[in-house]
Design goal:
single chain, alpha+beta, 7-stranded mixed sheet, 5 helices, 16 strands, elongated
Length: 255
């Protein structure tokens, strides 16, 4: 999670050639989504036109730089209607007033927090009467040019520490990792059960049958000689060698 101040002014680096494309000038807010959709670029060698990078093209936002794959991530805002529309809305968040939907002033927004992986606005930093506090974006109803409208229950939902917003990012990732691990474990159990069932079926079909030709292991040595009446031990040896040996054995026994 990053504040807007931690992003604005960072150099933008191309991973492809290690060159600096420019620096972050502005964060373009999408008020409907509650996210940063574009970063505008300040470039010394560009006199005309506003350039930007879509947030989805960003590889990472570190302490010292924003990285992109290459300079093809840069777009001309004049060529992207939706980007132009967002720029013209001039949503700034910082230095706006936060007001409840019933018209009560909550405080002044002095900063906002961004999920640096997705661009989602996680919350705002407020200067309220007598204290500084954090408000999660879930309580923000409208991102306006001059006013942020928040839920009437927002005053009771203020946080003292921005770390609590960071936990909102980490918790879903942790839950997703746990769910992924659980799914993988379930799939592994299913595969093991399927393999066990297959081997039991092979044992049932082959045990007691006579082998018609020599069966070789994976190293080319005779594993089971022609004429052998198959026991459980023979079949387990073939199963241990793998599917190709088992197929050879299955196709060369008396019906």
């Amino acid at each position: 999670m990053k504040t807007s101040a931690q992003i604005i002014g960072l150099p933008i680096i191309s991973i492809a050639d290690g060159g600096q494309i420019g620096t972050v000038k502005l964060l373009i807010i999408n008020p409907e989504k509650g996210s940063v959709d574009f970063l505008t670029i300040e470039q010394e060698d560009v006199a005309f036109g506003l350039k930007a990078i879509p947030f989805k093209k960003i590889v990472g936002i570190g302490e010292f730089a924003v990285t992109v794959e290459d300079d093809r991530a840069v777009i001309d805002l004049a060529e992207i209607p939706i980007a132009n529309q967002l720029v013209n809305k001039q949503i700034r968040i910082k230095n706006t007033k936060a007001m409840t939907r019933k018209g009560e002033l909550l405080g002044e927004v002095t900063e906002f927090f961004i999920n640096d992986e997705t661009g989602e606005i996680m919350g705002i930093h407020l200067q309220t009467e007598g204290r500084q506090a954090i408000l999660s974006s879930e309580w923000v109803l409208t991102y306006g040019k001059d006013i942020l409208i928040v839920s009437e229950t927002a005053p009771d939902s203020l946080l003292d520490d921005a770390d609590m917003l960071a936990e909102k990012i980490e918790a879903p990732i942790h839950e997703a990792n746990e769910a992924e691990a659980e799914t993988a474990a379930i799939e592994e159990i299913k595969e093991q059960n399927a393999l066990k069932a297959l081997r039991e079926k092979q044992m049932e079909l082959l045990q007691g049958k006579r082998v018609k030709k020599d069966i070789f292991d994976l190293n080319g040595h005779i594993l089971i000689k022609a004429g052998t009446i198959l026991t459980a031990e023979h079949i387990v040896k073939a199963q241990t060698e793998g599917p190709s040996v088992m197929i050879d054995l299955s196709m060369n026994v008396d019906a």
